[in-house]
Amino acid sequence: MAEGVKPRVKAPKSASAGEAVTIKTLISHQMESGQRKNKDGSVIPRSIINRFTCEFNGKPVIEVAMEAAISTNPYFEFEAVIPEAGDMVFTWYDDDGSVYTETKSIAVG
Amino acid sequence: MQFSRRDTLALGLGAAAMTVLPFRALAAADDAIAAFTGGADLAEGGVTLTAPEIAENGNTVPISVESEGAVEIMVLATGNPTPGVATFKFGELAGAHSASTRIRLAGTQDVVAIAKLADGSFAKASSTVKVTIGGCGG
After folding, report:
1. B77 touching chain A per CB within 8 A
2. Is the torsion defined by CA of B101, A93, B118, B78 positive or negative?
3. B115 with B98: CB under 8 angstroms?
4. How far, in Å, CA of B96 to CA of A92, rounded?
5. pLDDT class of B34 with cuts at 50, 70, 90
6. The three-state (H, E, C) secondary structure of chain B, written as one string
7. Which chain B residue shows the shortest CA-CA distance from A52?
8. What is the ipTM of this complex?
9. Across the interface, do B94 and A70 touch by the CB < 8 Å criterion?
10. Reduced to 3 states, what is the DSSP secondary structure of residue A7?
11. Tens digit of pLDDT for each residue in A41-62?
């Protein structure tokens, strides 16, 4: 398991119904590409987050399939439509099988 | 400066390698595009790719893609050792079909975005990014 993985999400606390809001997500992860070599000249094995999903009340907002070309501490910014109050669930899937989740509640009003 | 026979040979080999290597990477990118589109035609327009003209640090190059009515957008870096970057799939609650992220680029190259539109057709946009320091370690 990668060390010190910490998801951070910036989402509004409330929105008007049907409004498209901007969501920003960042997760600290070294995203080892599998291209770099260590001092001995052997390749450092790939260790990245390969998938990210965002759902709101169980309905999909965005899904990202990630390759090694995504930078360290993967950052995503996208828009989501908020039809009703509920929870937005963010999930990151690591190469090593770890799953990191974060939940944000968004109120309508 | 005098060129010895050895220098000339080395230069020639270097030049040959320079011309062959990008083609290999491009072929990999073409394969990735074919796998995504199933060989369908690519229309220009219908998808917007925003990338800087010059990136000082190839480790974090900010890019964004946008396409109204796209179901999926695939981003490729044609000059990277592996061309795949990311594939964005938009769900029913996606707002404007846009997304931003930060990517690694090994060197100066074309970044390509291919959008799969709701009607099953494909659109393509590309942008050349000059990279001062490559982002693949090495």
Report:
1. yes
2. positive
3. no
4. 22
5. confident
6. CCCCHHHHHHHHHHHHHHHHHHHHHHHHHHHHHHHHHCCCCEEECCCEEECCCEEEECCCEEEEEECCCEEEEEEEECCCCCCEEEEEEECCCEEEEEEEEEECCCCCEEEEEEEEECCCCEEEEEEEEEEEECCCCC
7. B88
8. 0.88
9. no
10. strand
11. 898 898 999 999 999 999 999 9
Size of interface A-B (CB pairs under 8 A): 110
Question: What are A's interface residues with B at a Cβ cutoff of 8 A?
Answer: 20-22, 33, 35-37, 55-56, 59-72, 74-83
Residues of A in contact with B89 (CB under 8 A): 60, 62-65
Whether residues B98 and A66 touch (CB distance < 8 A) is answered with no
* pLDDT value for B11: 66
Report yes or no: B20 at the A interface, CB cutoff 8 Å. no
What the block records as the tokens of B81 is 């050792």
Which of B82, B99, B102 shows the shortest C-beta gap to A71? B102
The pair of structure tokens assigned to A8 is 């951070």
B61-66 and B94-103: which strand pairing? antiparallel
